[in-house]
Amino acid sequence: GQQLNQSPQSMFIQEGEDVSMNCTSSSIFNTWLWYKQEPGEGPVLLIALYKAGELTSNGRLTAQFGITRKDSFLNISASIPSDVGIYFCAGQSRGSNYKLTFGKGTLLTVNP
Amino acid sequence: NAGVTQTPKFRVLKTGQSMTLLCAQDMNHEYMYWYRQDPGMGLRLIHYSVGEGTTAKGEVPDGYNVSRLKKQNFLLGLESAAPSQTSVYFCASNLLPGALSNQPQHFGDGTRLSIL
To answer: Chains A, B: CB contacts under 8 A, how many?
Structure first.
């Protein structure tokens, strides 16, 4: 089956630093999604990418859909303590009946 | 996570017991999904449904059954609970993934299930 490699697994940063995480796949996806999960809650969508090469921002977050359709990255600028959580990438392809394949997550810790 | 409601939020079971997890959505979504989340494993799809009366297997379906008798509800059943099924279970839904009006999956807040 399709697999996503998400890195890094965890990050410890100081408030104000920029963060970058990425996902790579052996398969092509038509959609890339980035979710954030906080303790005791379900994943919440941050950014959705629908076209290869697309670069989309949501406040301090920026994500890009790789041209090869096999990768995506998420950047967070000027991190703040409330950015703490687990960030998941997810890929979706038409051929899989639109099911999502999730990365294993990046745990982000921000030190004030 | 307004729109997708999971019940119960917590449950402890003994090995061999059965139970049903309920997912309800009020967004008129066609597609519904059940995932399990385990440490270091991300979210793995158990079963999903592309519409009322339909179900299909996901990545890890063994030991689970599902039903979608009503469009707004998707039930996940454990026939004979095993310790390996201790996990956090998430339900999600979306409208029509291939449609132009597509909205990505919305998730509930999860059901934390422990099997002793």
So the answer is: 53
